[in-house]
């Protein structure tokens, strides 16, 4: 019997591994995948997943700030998301004297919860298919530019017709399958979101950039916030009179054991994938785009790190910018490596050859799709010479130093200011100076100057002269090509590096002073290059080529369900908790424990510091109710779910609708997955909810937060005598 059991289990695991977790599915379309979800272990009804008439799982999921995902985990509006999603909010409340990034933060009562101006959450109310309304107004005689204009016009009308259905409601129309389908989304937005708790970075960011995108992982990547409403439950701006939200649904917390093969489902807001990318696009990414991004960010990170290591105040000030830069620096390194290792170009080429054969086998298909691959090939060829320049104008130019973007926006903002009536200028001045305060609070002037000078110099070195901004020629002629000297003078004279100079100008706005501002005009020059860096002919070919390719590949395989690319709308992915074998003689378990944290501990390395309190709890094996059946404290686990950026903070939910973890990363071996899903390799890395609760309760002493959650325990076996 034992041998049969082992064989059956092994067969089951092979089946699960072979069945791809590919697919970020729109929640209103889960009827298409529902039976398969049940086969994988789902015990809920379709109505419990997504409903517009009753509470459902979707009502516990929020778009967190528009850049991450969060989930409601109590009847009092408590939100769980990632530590890196809450990172900037934590940083904004941190000082050298109270360094919450380093030491963590926990509100021991509601009065200690901290407001975050500008931070919001959005709940999805419903989505509607508006494809027919839009496509009925389109025709093949339109250029892609004309088509886009008509789509925008009709979408605006659809949004206007929705009207104000409720307080805080917002609507938007999104394109899917490269402009072949369209859906309307209606949200409710809440602006009073308060920081409740965060572990120290030595827990929430344990492993740092070294472990980023890697498995095995030992990071407690979580933070907690709370949504507040007015007394009637409506969205409201921050006020002492506001009360914790009473959500339509919140996720219960599973205290059950994890096993390989357990059902795992993720709701969230994935940002962007490119699964329909052609072989020509893969080639461009590997050879041109990704290396350029990495080279710029290499330099940017080195400059910031040097300043951060020298001063704790600077470390706090630049922490968010450094983390954001580093995340996608490593992402592009990993994606390039895995596009090559996983032979994605060859896989795409094979798809295209099969498509070409299918098209050529039928005259009607040749008439409809015959130009598709030629459009894509010619489009990429036409834009090839501008790819690196387009990277640099953003990465080293407009988005390089903080002041560059601030000056660019300010330059055009002050031009508008001069056109205002005197009474309007008075109110506008207050807003402009408030923005200046915000900018200066997040800018370390010496580092910013060094970034600007160094990044501009790299830009001048690596990009052809005809793709450089005009002021680079001035630097070459008047400053002997010394960008440090040019930057020094610019910072000493610009309106955008001194609040006092800016305030004086606002009192006496002189056009000639603004036009001669070195940083303002540099920003305008960079924007000109950004605008001219595109190739309208290439854009036209690629837009049409991808629209036809996406429609054609779906028509060629009518029995296959194709999920649309991610575009920051709510999606559902499902699969199972699974280990994997990344390479010869290597097998990765599906979970990690606190033992691994201690094995990695190195208190001389800022990425691998372990707090004394955590060491003490480990030494005493004081895990409380959060240990697994083996007496270990689980930290992370992996599943074959399909996620990407924007899914950070997403709930991992079991077959009974209970929270088992919080997703925060993908794995290194499948970093090409945003372009081609690797069914045998792709894994989602999540922090186990039991580790989250352990840190909150046993480590931080914030057990009151656990008490407001609904913990679900495994049923005890009946031991009575029959």
Key descriptive features of the protein:
single chain; 722 residues; Thrombin, subunit H; 3 domains; 11-stranded antiparallel sheet; 7-stranded antiparallel sheet; 28 helices; 46% helix; disordered N terminus
Fold-level CATH name of the largest domain: Thrombin, subunit H
Which class do the helix and strand fractions yield?
A: alpha+beta
User: Radius of gyration, Cα only, in angstroms?
Assistant: 27 Å
| Biggest sheet features | 11 strands, antiparallel
Give the oligomeric state of the chains in this entry, treating copies of one chain as homo and distinct chains as hetero.
single chain
What is the helix tally?
A: 28
By CATH, the architecture of the largest domain is named Beta Barrel
Give the terminus-to-terminus CA distance. Answer: 25 Å
Low-confidence stretches: 1-20, 718-722
Helix content: 40-55%
What's the average pLDDT?
Answer: 94
Work out the number of β strands.
Answer: 22
Q: How much strand content do the residues show?
A: 5-15%
Number of domains: 3
